[in-house]
Design a protein that fits this description.
The protein has 24 helices and 21 strands. By secondary structure, the protein is α/β, with parallel strands linked by helices. It folds into three domains: 312 residues, 3-Layer(aba) Sandwich (Rossmann fold), CATH 3.40.50.970; 190 residues, 3-Layer(aba) Sandwich (Rossmann fold), CATH 3.40.50.970; 129 residues, Rossmann fold (3-Layer(aba) Sandwich). The chain is elongated, with a radius of gyration of 28 Å. The termini are far apart. Bound molecules: thiamine diphosphate and magnesium ion (MG). The site of magnesium ion has 6 residues, from β4.
């Protein structure tokens, strides 16, 4: 059978049809937008050849994809329908991308293994890398596609991903679609050299630089890149040089920053025309065949729009669905003791070990966590020796890499339990957490979830200075979509961590480093069945006249404050919340109903710390029970200094808590 560059006439017509369909969708969507039927559009026009060339290499439903917002034609090529794209554009309930929760062009499709995409440019790279680790582990020879524009390669995550991918020989293809502009910024302002050149120097990484308006040339590069990846030879970067025929988005007007000449030159490189000309010149396909396809693409879009417009919008009542899984919380198990005494860090280690045995999909990684060191606090000691370096391994020194890859593993069915070496360094991963981890389930309308655990040592009193003493709970209590645990002793740490390992939602597990080896935080060790449900506080001491609501290292400090005041037993009730999300509001209410007074003691700094929210809740829900002002004892609004006298002054001390209790008791 006659072929052009290895393609039959039927194959080329099929590809051209999808290019034309993508173009027709762009055109029609912009009309619908003007009619007020949607509010945002980002087009693939000019990128179609490169995207189709990539899409036909990847196996739908087997390989994984992280397409960016301009990848409409890629998604069509992979098997997403025009109707599905229109449902997203019109924000309809049955949109498989996000059920109308995200702006249009944020692709996601469970059956096609397109992972739900969020909006930050570049956060997809590390997630795709994590999924490529899952693909390696699964051993099914699947590979991963991830794409972005050239501007996005300025993001650190891109370089972190290249670094780890090349070291791990990961089966991943980075498709960089270079249309020379990132909104209005030309690539000459973006970086000193091309993406292709900047990606040089990584072992195992192949690079391709092709004319992305030429379907055949682009296809050849993707074929080679994918062959390598499937053979386990490593990742590739494919740079396709394309044209942006539309403004950046429907909110942009590129005539304001590009000359007419520049825009006209782009039109001359229109990939649909390029493909047509290649076929016409060789007389492989006739013009009328292409015209027929253009017309039927337009007809299809018209009829799909008619159908899509009739589909329902999401029910308002569903607006709060899928922030978390709907799994019920388990009841607290009774304690069977297996050891007389265990310190908190060892209890954590044992919880991890037991859960690794139980769940073969659980993986542990982070900085320096593998043996022989086993973590800077030895929380993971012995685990890589026991479970092997494929399940317990050191990550590069890059927090965004840790969380990003954990996302990619979690969506692919793994249970990553990762360590951020100090809570103070979680900030470099904050975009991954805030915009990716906590929204995955919600933004995909429950199609994808991301049940990873982030363990991290937090807190002060160890002369750790500004960047080894921070409390981070105040930031995270504000964030929907992630559960928060903060144990005060060994048994709770074990029960809560084991519970977290079995939950279907992301968990931030805060471990006070000052408690790791403290005698007072050591307990009897509960057995492997011990699980503590989230959202259940613990009454540490019962009392009738004041409720102290606290957690973490402040539990012991409050016990000491009671001793310091020489108070009789039965005066002060201490509630250890154990988890900050969910909060055990029932326990707080019941206690305040009895005592009439509430003191919240926390280590994070005062302003907008967790105590602010808890105070507000008490004011709202317990106002009638109160017999005094709601009081907070917390750190000063200051960094935590290294000098131990200064440190004492900034962090809450026994005397401060004692004074707070006394003041409120006497009120
Ligand atoms: C982290 C982040 N910063 C800024 C933006 C706003 N933004 C969206 S797309 C874009 C330009 C991206 O350009 P490029 O990577 O070249 O892709 P193109 O749109 O040209 O295909 C910017 C600045 C964003 N979405 N995320
Ligand atoms: Mg660009």
């Amino acid at each position: 059978m006659a072929k052009l560059n290895g393609f039959t006439k039927k194959q080329i017509l099929d590809i051209y049809y999808k290019m034309s369909l993508s173009r027709a969708l762009d055109t029609k969507m912009l009309i619908l937008l003007k009619q007020g039927k949607s509010f945002f559009h980002m087009g693939a026009s000019g990128h179609e050849a490169a995207q189709l060339a990539a899409s036909i290499i990847f196996k739908p439903g087997i390989d994984w994809s992280y397409p960016y917002y301009r990848d409409g034609a890629y998604c069509l090529g992979l098997g997403m329908t025009a109707r599905e794209q229109l449902l997203s554009f019109l924000s309809k309930a049955d949109d498989p991308n996000s059920g109308g929760r995200q702006m249009p062009m944020h692709y996601g499709h469970k059956d096609l293994k397109i992972i739900s995409q969020s909006s930050p440019t570049g956060s997809q790279f590390l997630q795709a890398l994590g999924t490529s680790f899952a693909a390696q582990n699964d051993g099914k020879n699947s590979i991963v596609y991830v794409s972005s524009g050239e501007g996005t390669t300025s993001q650190g995550d891109f370089h972190e991903a290249l670094n780890w991918a090349s070291n791990a020989k990961a089966p991943i293809i980075f498709h960089i679609q270079d249309n020379e502009y990132a909104i209005s910024t030309h690539k000459s302002e973006q970086s000193a050299d091309s993406v292709f050149t900047r990606a040089a120097g990584y072992k195992n990484l192949s690079r391709f630089d092709v004319d992305g308006t030429d379907f055949f040339e682009s296809h050849l590069a993707f074929k080679q890149a994918c062959d390598r990846a499937r053979k386990g030879q490593g990742p590739s970067v494919v740079v396709t040089n394309v044209v942006r025929l539309l403004p950046h988005s429907s909110s942009d007007d590129q005539r304001k920053y590009r000359s007419e000449d520049d825009l006209n030159k782009d039109q001359e490189r229109d990939p649909l025309i390029v493909l047509k000309n290649q076929c016409l010149e060789s007389k492989f396909i006739l013009k009328k065949d292409f015209d027929k396809l253009d017309n039927s693409a337009k007809d299809q879009v018209e009829s799909d729009v008619n159908w899509s417009e009739k589909q329902p919008y999401p029910d308002e009542e569903t607006a709060l669905d899928h922030i978390y899984s709907s799994d019920p919380f388990v009841n607290e198990a009774s304690v069977k003791t297996i050891r007389k005494n265990v310190v908190m860090v060892d209890a954590i280690n044992h919880a991890l070990s037991e859960e690794m045995l139980r769940n073969k999909k659980m993986l542990i990684f982070g900085q320096d966590i593998a043996d022989p060191k086993g973590g800077v606090f030895t929380a993971t000691k012995g685990l890589s020796d026991n479970f092997g370096m494929s399940r317990v391994f050191n990550s590069p020194l890059a927090e965004s890499s840790i969380i990003g890859t954990a996302v990619g593993l979690a969506v692919a069915g793994y249970k990553p339990v990762v360590e951020i070496q100090f809570g103070d360094y979680i900030w470099t991963a904050m975009n991954q957490i805030r915009n990716e981890v906590v929204t995955m389930r919600y933004r995909s309308n429950n199609s994808w979830n991301c049940p990873l655990i982030i363990r991290t040592p937090v807190g002060g009193y160890i002369h750790g200075g500004l960047c080894h003493s921070q409390s981070i709970d105040g930031y995270f209590i504000h964030m929907p979509g992630i559960y928060l645990a903060y144990p005060s002793n060994a048994a709770d740490a074990k029960g809560l961590l084991k519970m977290a390992c079995r939950m279907n939602d992301p968990v931030l597990f805060m471990e006070h480093k000052g408690l790791y080896r403290q005698g007072y935080a050591a307990t009897e060790e509960p057995d492997e069945e011990y699980l503590i449900p989230f959202g259940k506080g613990r009454i540490v001491i019962e009392g009738d006249y004041i409720s102290v609501i606290t957690w973490g290292a402040m539990v012991q400090k409050t016990i000491e404050a009671i001793k310091y005041l020489n108070l009789d037993p039965g005066f002060v009730e201490i509630i250890d919340l154990r988890t900050l999300n969910p909060l055990d509001l029932d326990m707080i209410k019941a206690s305040i109903k009895k005592t009439g007074k509430a003191l919240i003691v926390y280590e994070d700094n005062l302003t907008n710390g967790p105590g602010a929210e808890i105070s507000a809740l008490i004011a709202e829900k317990c106002f009638e029970y109160l017999d005094g002002p709601i009081k907070r004892i917390a750190s000063e609004d200051s960094p935590v200094p290294f000098n131990w006298f200064l440190e004492d002054r900034v962090l809450p001390q026994t005397e401060d808590i004692a004074l707070g209790i006394k003041d409120l008791l006497e009120y």
